[in-house]
Amino acid sequence: MVREKKLVDEVSGWLRIYDDGSVDRTWTGPPEAKFMAEPVPSHDEFVDGVSTRDIIMCEKSNLKARVYLPEKKLGETEKFPILVHFHGGGFCISQADWYMYHHIYTRLARSSRVICVSTFLRRAPEHRLPAAIDDGYSTLLWLRSLAQGESYEPRWLKENADFNRVFLIGDSSGGNLVHEVAARAGKADLSPLRLAGAIPIHPGYVRSERSRSELEQPQTPFLTLDMVDKFLSLALPVGCNKDHPITCPMGPAAPPLEGLKLPPYLLCIADQDLLIDTEMEFYEAMKTANKAVELFISSGVGHSFYLNKIDVDMDPTTTKQTSNLIAGIKEFINKH
């Protein structure tokens, strides 16, 4: 007789955990939003000026990446900067090939003239942190091996990429990974690869004690207090709380920012984000540590607003702020 498994916990329609340890990430929210959490097949041909390909970076671990290559324009001869992307999802959900990322990073690759390498990160609770950090850093090491001519890749990157201009970018919890990978990279010699900049977008910075913005800002399908609490309890190392350095890099448990070798940062925040107060704490801590950090603020929108394709298409404020965000990222890349 087969025993029926029982639901142990659920997180805001995004994730369910059962008593046998299995995890179900089937979207159970509004059906009209389901398409954003579905995978988009890669396509070698150029569609709207961008070609995509899934590449296995490590056969042993099966670490993969979705690569976005913009089509060269007539007379365009320079190689493209590389944008290494870490997806969000509270370290527990989403994938690099989901539509919510495909629509925005296709647009970013095309408009900013960058190659985007989006890592398929291991997810909690099956793989607690620092697994996703290790995957992000392994992506940099793989790119270094390509730059050194030590690894084989079907010539997409070697022929088109500028390994002297590599940037990290991440959404939400992916923004946390940006900082962790940048800090780890600062301790290593990655030449001939050069880490030129870091772009955490709405990073998931919190403390054990609720901030004022967590209590006062509106919750959205992309971020609720339930998601913050439960995802982090599933993702952080066993026995750790939100004051852990990964989620509170400006806190007393974290390595002093002054001692880290970091590239220039563009910290992107939204003024209606639940986490804006702790994101601003990080910004002020970076300034105090004399780190090169710029602040980009999106007005009238909340956490990860630009990933919501429905709002990007239908809501004028989201449409405008998404265009402004892409323009701000492009400007930062062009400066570095």
What is the rounded Rg? 19 Å
Structural class: alpha/beta
What share of residues are in beta strands? 15-25%
- As a percent range, the share of helical residues equals 25-40%
Q: Uncertain runs with pLDDT below 50, 5 residues or more?
A: none
Q: What is the number of helices?
A: 9
- In the sheet with the most strands, the strands line up as 4-5-7-6-8-9-10-11
- Topology as a string of helices (H) and strands (E): EEEEEEHEHHEHEHHEHEHH
Describe the structure.
It is globular and about 55 Å long. The protein has helices at 99-112, 131-147, 156-160, 173-185, 212-216, 225-235, 276-288, 309-314, 316-335; strands at 7-11, 15-18, 23-24, 50-58, 63-70, 80-86, 115-119, 161-171, 195-201, 265-270, 293-298. The longest helix has 20 residues, at 316-335. The relative contact order is 0.13. With 336 residues, the protein is of the alpha/beta class.
Topology:
Blueprint: E1 7-11, E2 15-18, E3 23-24, E4 50-58, E5 63-70, E6 80-86, H1 99-112, E7 115-119, H2 131-147, H3 156-160, E8 161-171, H4 173-185, E9 195-201, H5 212-216, H6 225-235, E10 265-270, H7 276-288, E11 293-298, H8 309-314, H9 316-335
Parallel strand pairs: 6-7, 6-8, 8-9, 9-10, 10-11
Antiparallel strand pairs: 1-2, 2-3, 4-5, 5-7
GO molecular function: hydrolase activity
Protein name: Alpha/beta hydrolase fold-3 domain-containing protein
InterPro entries: AB_hydrolase_3, Carboxylest/Gibb_receptor
